[in-house]
Amino acid sequence: MLNKFALFSLTLAALVGCGSNDNNDEARLRVFHASPDAPNVDVQVDGGSVLENVPYTTASDFIELSAGQVHITVTAAGTDVAVIDAPLVLAHNTDYMVVAAGRVAEIAPIVTTVDRSAPPTGSARLRVLHSAASAPAVDVYVTAPGVDIEAAEPVLSDVPFRAISDYLTVPAGSYDVTVTVAGTTNVAIQALNLSVSEGLIATVAALDNAGGGAPFALKVLDER
């Protein structure tokens, strides 16, 4: 099922014009700090501060920006030391997430659009982001609570670091989400009885422990 994934460019400049042609001149952008050994960060757009002192595992709200080319700079908080410094083209009426991913020595942005349209009645829309720098490729199981994954098939297979899946539409309810080393049932991360409410739109991100390495964790980023 690896063809369900898109590995996004490691340079922000590669993402051009992926939105609708709506006349709305606004685009919306959120930033997610997923670099386990990086310090808190500040974020500037075209030289102006938009976020300050953002800690690891924190995602900003969606920030409204004018569509078109902007310059994104991410620096160590309170300094001018840039860890990400690149242009990004924002399409009209489109939502984006920029993820600062990887250990600080290898940090690079993952850029993805965000589908914030309402899911079908009674359902939720979820996708998975592999942003755990120390973890290998993984399989993802989404099962009813208490179901043994030995008797289940992964809904996503062989997901590499920096990959983000398509959205999956699932009925609202409670689920066990289990992440295993790809091709095995060796559990790397597990979230039991995860409540998925009707109308939820979210990215479920796999993350290192602070500083890097295990224990790994899942973070649900609400995109509504």
The share of residues in extended strands comes to: over 45%
Whole-Å distance between the termini? Answer: 27 Å
Computed over alpha carbons, the radius of gyration is 17 Å
Largest sheet entry: 4 strands, mixed
Structural class, judged by helices and strands?
mainly beta
CATH topology of the largest domain: Immunoglobulin-like
Oligomer: single chain
What is the succession of H and E elements? EEEEEEEEEEEEEEEEEE
Strand order of the largest sheet: 5-2-8-9
Characterize the overall form.
globular
What are the low-pLDDT stretches, counting only 5+ consecutive residues below 50? 1-23
Portion of residues within helices:
under 10%
The number of domains is 2
Average pLDDT works out at: 88
Structure notes:
β15 (173-181) and β16 form a beta hairpin. The protein has no helices and 18 strands. It is an all-beta fold and 224 residues long. The protein folds into two domains: 2-114, Immunoglobulin-like (Sandwich), CATH 2.60.40; 123-222, Sandwich (Immunoglobulin-like), CATH 2.60.40.
Helix and strand layout, with pairings?
Elements: E1 5-7, E2 26-34, E3 41-45, E4 48-54, E5 63-66, E6 68-76, E7 82-90, E8 95-101, E9 108-114, E10 123-130, E11 138-143, E12 156-159, E13 163-165, E14 168-171, E15 173-181, E16 187-196, E17 201-207, E18 217-222
Parallel strand pairs: 2-8, 10-17
Antiparallel strand pairs: 1-13, 2-5, 3-4, 3-6, 6-7, 8-9, 10-14, 11-12, 11-15, 15-16, 17-18
Properties at a glance:
224 residues; mainly beta; Immunoglobulin-like; 2 domains; 4-stranded mixed beta sheet; 4-stranded antiparallel beta sheet; 0% helix; globular; disordered N terminus
